[in-house]
Each structure stands twice: as structure tokens, then as C-alpha cells.
């Protein structure tokens, strides 16, 4: 096992694994907890989970790379996701995405140098009646217009 027993975040992950008596079938739950704790799944975290669950590292990586929720790159404190599903796209989500990119001076998939913002897009968030939809971390904004972008950015915790 990785010698990470002194790192409080790894300790919290280990506590979760112990509490649920995690097995291979709990891999996704453990990865979700790790993503929430660390912000992303680093090589070190991936190896640790592999060792703790007795799952080949290649299988853990396969799950991480398959699901778009997981990321192997550090993300900003505020992750801004613009829905690009059909209903949102038809109602102008592409313009909203471009406005976020313009105001934050980064492209979709990138993180600001200060690590505060990441912009990304999603295929569908399942809130078509609120289209176009933007999610910042766990907060959902509906019927967003380009003039709302600055307000949304200002509401983010810094």
C-alpha cells in the first residue's frame, strides 16, 4: 500500500473505503469520493485506490477514462459546465459558452492560471425545460443569457 498514512485527505479516503468495506464492485463510489476530496484523480490516487481495492490499475484507469465525470487533470475551484444538449444548444448555449471563454480568457477544457475557474461543457444535464443551462459546481442556473455570465462568475466563491 502507498505510504500515505499521514496525509489527511488520503486518510479520509481510506476511512470511506473502510466504512463501506469497499470491494471491486464499489470502485465507482470510491472514485466519486476521491474526485470530491482531491478535485481530480491523480496517478498517486489511482494507484492508491487500485491497491486498497485489489483492482488492477489498468481497470481503475479504464473506469476513470470512460466516465466524463472523472478527470485526471486538476480543475478549478469553480467548475463551470455549459450544457450543449439539443435543447440548450438550440436556445443559444454555444453563445453562452463563448461568453464564459471571453470573460475568463480561457477555452472550454481549460483552467485559469490561478486555479479558480475551469470551463467545460456537458452533453445534457436533464433539465431541458430550463434551457439553456449552466452548472457551477453543484448549482444549476436555468434560462441563462449571455448577459447573465458576468453575474454568474461574480457569484462564484473565490
UniProtKB/TrEMBL annotation:
SUPFAM superfamilies: Thioredoxin-like. GO terms for molecular function: 2 iron, 2 sulfur cluster binding; metal ion binding; oxidoreductase activity. Keywords: 2Fe-2S, Iron, Iron-sulfur, Metal-binding. The keyword Cell membrane does not apply. Its cofactor is [2Fe-2S] cluster. InterPro entries: NADP_DH_HndA-like, NuoE-like, NuoE_dom, NuoE_N, Thioredoxin-like_sf. Signal peptide: none annotated. [2Fe-2S] cluster binds at residues 83, 88, 124, 128. Binds 1 [2Fe-2S] cluster. PANTHER family: NADH-QUINONE OXIDOREDUCTASE, E SUBUNIT (PTHR43342), POTENTIAL NAD-REDUCING HYDROGENASE SUBUNIT (PTHR43342:SF2). Belongs to the complex I 24 kDa subunit family. This is NAD(P)H-dependent oxidoreductase subunit E. It comes from Proteiniclasticum sediminis.
Amino acid at each position: 500500500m502507498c505510504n500515505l498514512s499521514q496525509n489527511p485527505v488520503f486518510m479520509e479516503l481510506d476511512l470511506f473505503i473502510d466504512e463501506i468495506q469497499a470491494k471491486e464492485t464499489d470502485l465507482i463510489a470510491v472514485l466519486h469520493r476521491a474526485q470530491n476530496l482531491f478535485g481530480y484523480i491523480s496517478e498517486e490516487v489511482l494507484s492508491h485506490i487500485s491497491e486498497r481495492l485489489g483492482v488492477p490499475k489498468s481497470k481503475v484507469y479504464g473506469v476513470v477514462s470512460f466516465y466524463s465525470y472523472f478527470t485526471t487533470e486538476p480543475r478549478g475551484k469553480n467548475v463551470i459546465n455549459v450544457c450543449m444538449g439539443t435543447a440548450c444548444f438550440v436556445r443559444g448555449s454555444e453563445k453562452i459558452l463563448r461568453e464564459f471563454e471571453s470573460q475568463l480568457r480561457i477555452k472550454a477544457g481549460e483552467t485559469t492560471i490561478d486555479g479558480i475557474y475551469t470551463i467545460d461543457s456537458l452533453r445534457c444535464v436533464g433539465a431541458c425545460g430550463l434551457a439553456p443551462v449552466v452548472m457551477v459546481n453543484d448549482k444549476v442556473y436555468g434560462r441563462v443569457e449571455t448577459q447573465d455570465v458576468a453575474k454568474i462568475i461574480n457569484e462564484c466563491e473565490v
